[in-house]
């Protein structure tokens, strides 16, 4: 029987090329919500650096690095790119990584600023995959998972593995669905492992991962989403949660 990781891999590889068009409305809404709440997220963003004329040009510019985990086509990176100096995406599937990188290339953004890699940080048997062990994959100011936790076998392990990639004081954030009824009718349903997350559940996961500092959970809105061609729309409430690495 296919493991959940294999199910995710085959489903999302196939879904990658149509993801942006199929979910364009939801993607754009969530990007807007993230940008509106950038102060709530609580990172000292790159744009906040004041241009001091007396600063010698040899002083390095402040860097703010984003890890966009389970990045898909790049929703979270698109939302936060204006406020960080580097976005690194990681996704399980080659299809999603290609979509992410093609979109950055098409906008003329160099790979040193925005680039995604294929990989899996939440394989219980492999704490640090060799391909993701370089220093560029550590010391992030913020790690975000956009709508990925409900597809993971072990979201609590994901929180721990992502916490390891943050610098002290760095922010772990998820964009997720609030608890809801299971909906069986869509293609991605086979990859869904969790029917949303309550505030208590997320708080516990974040605390156990060492990211319980200044924990916040915020409902950002309800929307109706059709998960498949010809499928009825189902209502989902989206929340953001954030915690700082202690
Ligand atoms: C619903 S999509 C979300 C994509 C994107 N973050 C967004 O908000 O639009 C879920 C993504 O999780 C990825 N994924 C699933 N399991 C994963 C794992 N173990 N590690 C990394 N990515 C994973 C899938 O390949 C897919 O791109």
TrEMBL record:
Q: What is the lineage of its organism?
A: Eukaryota, Fungi, Dikarya, Ascomycota, Pezizomycotina
Q: Name one GO molecular function term.
A: methyltransferase activity
Domain of life, per lineage:
Eukaryota
Gene Ontology biological process terms, A to Z = methylation
Q: Which Pfam families match?
A: Methyltransf_23 (PF13489)
Write down the species: Mollisia scopiformis
Q: What is this protein called?
A: S-adenosyl-L-methionine-dependent methyltransferase
Keywords in alphabetical order: Methyltransferase, Transferase
InterPro entries, A to Z: SAM-dependent_MTases_sf
């Amino acid at each position: 029987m296919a493991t959940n990781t294999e199910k995710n891999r085959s489903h999302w590889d196939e879904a990658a090329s149509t993801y942006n068009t199929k979910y364009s409305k939801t993607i754009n809404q969530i990007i807007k919500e993230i940008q509106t709440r950038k102060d709530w997220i609580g990172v000292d963003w790159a744009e906040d650096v004041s241009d001091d004329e007396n600063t010698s040009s040899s002083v390095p510019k402040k860097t703010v690095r984003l890890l966009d985990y389970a990045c898909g086509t790049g929703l979270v990176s698109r939302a936060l790119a204006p406020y960080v100096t580097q976005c690194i995406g990681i996704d399980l599937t080659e299809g999603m990584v290609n979509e992410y990188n093609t979109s950055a290339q098409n906008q003329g953004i160099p790979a040193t600023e925005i680039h995604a890699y294929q990989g899996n940080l939440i394989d219980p048997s492999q704490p640090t995959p060799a391909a993701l062990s370089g220093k560029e994959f550590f010391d992030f100011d913020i790690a975000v998972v956009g709508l990925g936790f409900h597809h993971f076998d072990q979201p609590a392990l994901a929180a721990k593995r992502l916490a390891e990639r943050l610098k002290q004081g760095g922010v772990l954030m998820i964009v997720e669905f609030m608890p809801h009824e299971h909906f069986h009718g869509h293609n991605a349903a086979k990859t869904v492992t969790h029917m949303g997350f309550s505030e208590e559940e997320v708080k516990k996961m974040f605390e156990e991962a060492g990211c319980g500092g200044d924990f916040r959970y915020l409902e950002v809105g309800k929307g109706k989403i059709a998960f498949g061609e010809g499928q009825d729309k189902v209502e989902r409430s989206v929340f953001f949660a954030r915690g700082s690495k202690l």
